[in-house]
Amino acid sequence: MKSLRILLFCILPLAVAAQQDSLRLRRGKAIAIGGTTVGMMGGLWWYLQNTWWAEDARGFRIDFDRDLRYANNLDKMGHYMGGIMTADLYYDAFRWMGMDERKAAWWGFGFGTGLQMAIEIKDGFSPDWGFSISDIVLGTAGSLQPLLRQTSPFFRHTDLKFSYWQRSHKYFNVRSIKPTPFHIDDYLNQTYWVSTNLRYITGNRMEWIPDWLNLSVGWGIDADTWNTDPTDPGTGGKPEFYLAPDIDLVRLFKPRKPFWKSTLHRLNYLKFPMPAIQITPKVKAWGLYY
Asked: SS3 of 221, please?
């Protein structure tokens, strides 16, 4: 019953939107997006239920304790980015259905927030975590991205990006698990980047700067100082900050067709490997950093 309520919570707004805009929206597109939503939510729920902690679920609770210490809060960037990606996806879907930009952005915000809420409710029954108020706040803030791009020049010229480079196996060693190509909780090897267009930063006074060139600031966790307290696992770790150039793929290739523009926009979630300067906890130059 809990699964059904979560699915209805996320799907019901789609049905309402389709009804309100029935003169403009095509039923086939609404059905396609609704079916995708049901499949996505059902698959996500099944994955969480059967692979994370199916045998150890407990009563619902809110985490007021380790939430703001775990992973030195770098996990909050993951929730923020999750909100951005979900809202972007549904924004494009509702635009495809025929909505205007502002209404599609609002519905993208609703679906981004709904998905984040579903994940957090599920975490509320976890044996190790619990419902996180800060996670849902950050996920909701990320879901505002399509709206902010319409109203703020800064957000139109700025992207949040992600990179994953396994420089350390400490996370896998501490958990006594076999290293995999990617692990969602391996924050030691994750870096989140705020990437802003260089022409925008300079007020368009330097037209010789390529319009696709960005300047990015990265945030990660120092592996040597992470998990040093055995009574509080997964915490600690000094912050690592980086400066690096970056590439905006949409501005670089300037696609005309909506499909390719949307595809490159999705690829822009990933930070392009570039030279970088590490600022903290020690200064270091990287010939290539990802």
From this structure: strand
pTM for the model: 0.84
Over residues 206-244, the pLDDT tens digits come to 889 999 999 999 999 999 999 998 888 899 999 999 999
Residue 212 backbone class (left: φ over 0; alpha: ψ -120 to 50; beta: rest):
alpha
Q: For tokens 């609703």, what's the residue?
A: 110
**Strands of 239-247's sheet, edge to edge?**
158-164, 190-197, 213-221, 239-247, 274-280, 284-289
Strands (E), 165-227: 190-197, 213-221
- The DSSP line for 257-272 is SHHHHHHHHHHTTBPP
In angstroms, rounded to a whole number, what is the distance separating the alpha carbons of residues 168 and 146? Answer: 35
Is residue 274 helix, strand or coil?
Answer: strand
pLDDT exceeds cutoff 50 at 8 = no
Is the separation of the CB atoms in 59 and 126 below 8 Å? no
Structure tokens at 219: 């945030």
Judge whether 171 and 189 are in contact, CB under 8 Å: yes
Sequence-separated (6 or more) residues with CB below 8 Å from residue 195: 158, 159, 160, 161, 214, 215, 216, 246, 248, 271
Query: CA of 106: how far to CAs of 113, 138, 204, 258, in Å?
Result: 11, 17, 31, 20
Instruction: Let me know if 253 is exposed, middle or buried by CB neighbors in 10 A (0-12, 13-18, 19+).
Output: middle
Query: Could you tell me the two tokens for 27?
Result: 């039923």
| Helix or strand run (H / E) with residue 244 | strand 239-247
pLDDT band at residue 147, thresholds of 50, 70 and 90? very high
Q: Which of 122, 121, 116 is nearest to 139 (CA)?
A: 116
